[in-house]
Each structure stands twice: as structure tokens, then as C-alpha cells.
Amino acid sequence: MFPSRFMPCIECGASVARGEADQHRCDPERLLDFRMFILRDDIAAFETRLLAFLDSPRGRFHRWLAERDVRGIRD
Q1: Mean pLDDT confidence for 11-17
Q2: How far apart are CA 6 and CA 74, in angstroms?
Q3: What torsion, rounded to 10 degrees, do the Cα atoms 65, 71, 74, 75 define?
Q4: Contacts 24+ apart (CB under 8 A), 34-42
Q5: What are the pLDDT digits (tens) for 18-47?
Q6: Is-contact 24 6, C-beta < 8 A?
Q7: What is the rounded distance in angstroms from the CA atom of residue 5 to the CA atom of residue 3?
């Protein structure tokens, strides 16, 4: 098996020639896309976890407190 001339950048996933890794600078847009790709499972599960939290006793209290603050009700 032949080793590849290119390796992925660990920060942005771009294919970089082995000898040019020192000069590589991550493109900010590609960096954001790569990080969103890495976090895709967490992002997809966010709504489910949020709804589970809001159904818990602690979540119901936080929801009540937020509603109270929005209405401007103070004791």
C-alpha cells in the first residue's frame, strides 16, 4: 500500500500536502463548516435534550422563572 501525499488538517479537514503542512492556514468558513460537521450529533440531539430538561422539575422551575421575568412580575 502506498502512503498518501496528502493528510487532512486536524483543525479544518482540508487535504494538505505533507510537505506543506507548515504553511497551511485554515479558511475560516471551512473551519466553521468542519466544526459544525464534528458537532452534528450534538446539534441534532439538542432539541430532544432541551425538551427533556424542560419537562423535569428543575426545567419547569426555570420555565416558570423565565415567564415571570418576561411579564415583568417582581415580588
Answers
A1: 94
A2: 62
A3: -80
A4: 37/13
A5: 889 899 999 999 999 999 999 999 999 999
A6: no
A7: 7
Q: Evaluate the CA torsion angle 49, 53, 54, 56 in order and state its sign.
A: positive
What SS3 state is found at 6?
A: strand
Q: How far apart are CA 73 and CA 7, in angstroms?
A: 58
Say how far apart CA 38 and CA 14 lie, in whole Å: 14
Rounded CA-CA distance 48/67 in Å is 21
Report the run of H or E that residue 16 belongs to, with start and end: strand 15-17
pTM for the whole thing? 0.59
